[in-house]
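Working notes for the structural subgroup meeting. M.R. asked for a predicted model of this chain before we commit to crystallization trials. I am recording the input and output together here so anyone reviewing the notebook later can reproduce the run.

Input as submitted:
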Amino acid sequence: MKKLLQVCTFMLALACASSAVAQEAASLRLNWLYYGFHSFFPLGVDKGFYKEEGIDLTVGEGQGSGRAVQIVGSKSDTFGLSDGASVIGGAAKGAPIVAVMGIMNKSPFAVISRADANIKTVKDLEGKSIAATTGEAGLTIFPAIVKANKLNGDSIKFVRVDGAGKLVAMLEKRVDAMLGGLENQSLILVQRGLAVTNIAYSDVGANTLGLVIHVHKDTLEKNPKLVQAFIRATQKSIAYAEKNPDEAIAAFAKIKPDLDRTLAMQQLKAGLNLVRAKDGENQPLGWMNPADWDMTLNMAREYQELKTDMKPGDFYTNALISAK
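Returned structure, recorded in token form:
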């Protein structure tokens, strides 16, 4: 009987220990509809990384980076995932948000050319035709590439089409190249049988922060432990996905049963190549390079008509990335 009581007491202690971490509800608003690169978030939920940090996380699909900025700015969601330029644009207009973790520190923007167009270097873009959508961010900052590489911008012809039309124009060989994402459109074209060559913006002097986690300033001030816990759990999720991409896609498939697993895997791997900042190899996952914020802000001022006296350091902090 005494032994039985000891066993029961031990089991009760284990149960209490497992529930010792109180769960705090939090929500994440994505930048867009779920796609392969996002899969480490459901992976983290599925593996219990967020629960281990005391977070009961709900992940919601998005309707663009700008919308995620608005939602977090109104405190409708705890965390948001947006591109760096949208964070700068929103904060400059009064949204009380701040970036706390870089998820895609290298820009996914690229000039995606047909392999048979023989565009091997950025200089080869001269005299070529490029499909682009009016107002898209990659088009707005393209002049930065022209300037950085001393190109003859007048010799480059832009063919304006809608988003879906860019892919069609490429497949029908009506243009030599298109503007798009390394982790998205480039992969779709290959999947459809078109060999392509990519020129990444980040390699030719026009890097902007791809995706960052941002929070309301009140959340950062009043509940920094929650923010730090979210960062730790997300670091675990990304690191685990890097070593176990199959498990990330499997967790993703639980919430997206109709998932194209092959494309999702390609999107995940392509996105993971963009996670770490330049010169950030020895920094913790999520560290943001100040130089990237400088460049993103400068390009927003020069090419996107942003008017603000705010400094780069007003838009982000690495403080919780390195905190123990």
